[in-house]
Amino acid sequence: MLSIRTATGYLVRLDPGEEVCGTLAAFLGREGVGSASIAGLGAVRGAVLGYFDGARREYLRRELPGEHELCSLTGNLSYRDGEPFVHAHAVLAGADFAVSGGHLFEATISATGEFWIATSEARIERKLDEASGLRLISGKG
Ligand code: ZN
Question: Residue 125 is part of a domain; what is its CATH number?
């Protein structure tokens, strides 16, 4: 991992073997970032995507075997049970150029990952929303 300070936060390069969301969350937590928006691209393997089934209040999970282009990742940093948490959605493309997308549960960098991160000092927490069963952003301002 390489991080470069920018005027609005960081540019982070992740390297092969690094898990995307966990590595970014740990880094931003160490840096004391309260919240952030994240945009990224690169190449990954072992991606697990999710689709939230609102009626069942649970995620359908699908693992995508092999390597994929990480065409687009958009996400944010907040805190869940006091721990830094990256919520990200991703669009991935395989060798057949077909794309898959969804909630990103996990993915490991296979070639490189490039992430532009805009940070904020405002600490954002997530709290369980009984209606949806999701832990939603809960602002304290
Ligand atoms: Zn999601």
Answer: 3.30.1330.80
